[in-house]
Amino acid sequence: MKKVLLSILSILFVVCSGIAQDYDVSSTSKTFRDGDRRNRRVRTNIYYPKVSPVNQTQFPVVILGHGFVMGSDAYQNFYDTLVPRGYIVVFVNTEGSFFANHEAFSKDIAFMVGAIQAENSNQRSPLFGIVDDKSALIGHSMGGGAATVAASLTEVETLVTFAPALLRFDTLTPASKVTAESIVFSGSGDGVTPPNENHEPIYNNLGSDCKYFINIKGGAHCYYANSNFFCDFGENSSSGDIQITRAQQQAVTFKFLNSWLDYKLKNSSAAKQTFLTDLAISNEITSENNCNNDPVVYTPAEIELKTFPNPANKFINIKMVNNKKLDKVEFYNQNGKLVHVASTNQVDVSALRSGHYIVKIYAENTSVSKKIVIQK
Question: What global pTM score does this model have?
Answer without folding.
Answer: 0.77
